[in-house]
Write a structure and sequence with these properties.
The chain has helices at 14-20, 111-124, 151-159, 170-186, 213-222, 245-261, 271-286, and strands spanning 2-4, 24-27, 44-57, 72-76, 79-81, 85-90, 94-101, 131-137, 140-148, 195-202, 227-232, 265-268, 287-294, 300-308, 314-317, 320-323. The chain has 351 residues and is of the alpha+beta class. Helix 2 (111-124) packs antiparallel against helix 3 (151-159) and helix 4 (170-186) packs parallel to helix 5 (213-222). The strands form three sheets. The chain has a seven-stranded mixed β-sheet with strand order 1-9-8-7-10-11-12, sandwiched between helices. Strands 2, 3, 6, 13 and 15 form a five-stranded antiparallel β-sheet that branches. A four-stranded antiparallel β-sheet has the order 5-4-14-16. The chain is globular and about 50 Å long. It has two domains: 2-15 and 92-284, Rossmann fold (3-Layer(aba) Sandwich), CATH 3.40.50.410; 23-90 and 288-323, no CATH class. The longest helix has 17 residues, at 170-186.
Length: 351
C-alpha cells in the first residue's frame, strides 16, 4: 500500500481524528494497588477521562517500578488534577510500527545498511505477545509488512524496502503512521493492553513535508502514540560531535517532536549506539505507569506536567491533550508522550 503525502489531501483529517480520540468516556471502578496487569484495562465513568502513561527513572537512568498513586502529581496548565485511577504496567505486550526512511539522502555513508541493522536490533528485543509492522517512506508512505509477531517476516520486510531515492516527507510520514498504529492497536483482538509506538529510522533530513514538527507532535500525542526517532548518521554529521548549527537545529526539531509525544530521540553514529537505543526503547514501553484524570471541558490544547513527589526522579509523559472535544468510547486506556526537557539530543547517558 502506497500513500501519497504531498501535493494532495491524504493527510487531511489527521487532526480531527486525533482530537476526536483524545479523551475516553468510561465508568471508573475501584482498582487494586498497582500490579502487573493481564487483562485489558478499562477506565469507565460518566465523565470524560484522559489517561497518561509515564516512564520514571532514577538519577542513574534505572526504571523506578515501586511507586504508588500518592507519589504522583498531575498538573494541567499549572493546576493540580485529581488522579482518579492509577496502575503500574510491567512487561506488557508491545505493538509498534518501524518506519524506515528510503529517501535519496539515505544513500550516503552506508545509511541504508545501518538502518537495517538498527531495525534488526529492535526486532531482537521483541518478546512473545509483541507485534511489529514495517513501513517505508520518501514522499510516499508504503506499508511493507502488516503487524506480525514473526521476526523472520519483519527482517525480510526491512531487507526488501525500496532503494533510496527522491525527496523526504519525514514529518508527514510520522503523522500518517501514528494514525495507522492507533487504529491497529484499538482494533486488536488479543484483549491485552498494548503499548503502541512508532519507531522511526532516518537520517533526520526533511525536504518536503507539509506538516511541522510541532503539528506532528500534537497529532501523535492526541492519539496516544509515542514516537521514538533513531537517527543514523556518520560521525561528522553527529550534532554531539561538532558545532554545526544546521545539524543541531535539525536534531532539536526531532527531539522536540519525539518528546512531545512521550518518545525520545536517539542518535546512532557508531555500531553500538543502535543496540543501546533498541534496548532502551523496548524497555520504556514495558515499564510505565498509567494515570487517569477528568478531562477539561475547555476546548483546545491542554498542557500537562506529570511529576513525582520523590526527589531525584525523572518523569517523561506526554506534553498535553486536546480538551473540550466529544469523547470516544474506548475499551483500552492508552498511553502517550513526553514532557519537554532541555537535554541535548542523543543517547541518554552520553555527554
Amino acid at each position: 500500500m502506497r500513500v501519497r503525502m504531498t501535493g494532495g489531501g491524504v493527510l487531511t483529517g489527521i487532526f480531527s481524528v486525533a482530537l476526536a480520540l483524545t479523551t475516553a468516556r468510561a465508568d471508573v471502578s475501584q482498582q487494586p494497588q498497582p500490579q502487573e496487569t493481564s487483562a485489558a484495562p478499562r477506565f469507565r465513568s460518566s465523565v470524560d477521562m484522559v489517561s497518561v502513561a509515564a516512564v520514571v527513572r532514577d538519577r542513574k537512568g534505572r526504571f523506578v517500578t515501586d511507586l504508588s498513586k500518592k507519589d504522583f502529581e498531575v498538573l494541567e496548565a499549572g493546576q493540580s488534577k485529581d488522579i482518579i485511577d492509577f496502575r503500574a504496567e510491567l512487561n506488557g505486550p508491545v505493538k509498534m510500527a518501524v518506519l524506515v526512511d528510503v529517501s535519496g539522502s539515505m544513500r550516503m555513508a552506508q545509511r541504508t545498511a545501518e538502518a537495517r541493522r538498527a531495525a534488526d536490533h529492535i526486532f531482537a528485543n521483541l518478546a512473545g505477545g509483541d507485534e511489529a509492522a514495517v513501513f517505508s517512506f520518501d514522499t510516499m508512505l508504503s506499508e511493507v509488512q502488516t503487524f506480525t509477531a514473526d521476526r523472520t517476516k519483519l527482517q525480510a520486510a526491512v531487507g526488501g524496502v525500496n532503494k533510496p531515492y527522491g525527496q523526504t516527507s519525514l514529518y508527514d510520514a510520522i503523522a500518517a503512521t501514528s494514525r495507522m498504529v492507533a487504529a491497529a492497536s484499538k482494533s486488536g483482538a488479543s484483549g491485552l493492553p498494548q503499548r503502541s509506538a512508532v519507531v522511526v529510522i532516518t537520517d533526520g533530513v526533511d525536504t518536503r513535508s507539509r506538516m511541522t514538527p510541532n503539528e506532528v507532535a500534537e497529532a501523535a500525542s492526541a492519539i496516544d502514540v509515542p514516537v521514538y526517532i533513531l537517527a543514523v548518521v556518520s560521525i561528522v554529521d553527529d550534532p554531539r560531535e561538532n558545532d554545526d548549527d544546521q545539524r543541531a537545529a535539525a536534531a532539536s526539531n526531532l527531539q522536540e517532536l519525539a518528546r512531545g509525544t512521550g518518545g525520545e530521540l536517539f542518535i546512532s553514529s557508531a555500531p553500538a549506539h543502535a543496540s543501546i537505543a533498541a534496548r532502551q526503547i523496548i524497555g520504556e514501553l514495558r515499564h510505565q505507569y498509567v494515570l487517569a484524570f477528568e478531562a477539561s471541558t475547555r476546548a483546545g490544547w491542554r498542557p500537562l506536567e506529570i511529576r513525582t513527589r520523590k526527589d531525584r526522579l525523572t518523569v517523561r509523559a506526554r506534553s498535553g491533550y486536546g480538551g473540550g472535544e466529544p469523547a470516544s468510547e474506548w475499551e483500552h486506556s492508552r498511553n502517550s508522550g513526553s514532557q519537554r526537557t532541555s537535554h541535548r539530543p542523543g543517547i541518554p547517558g552520553r555527554s
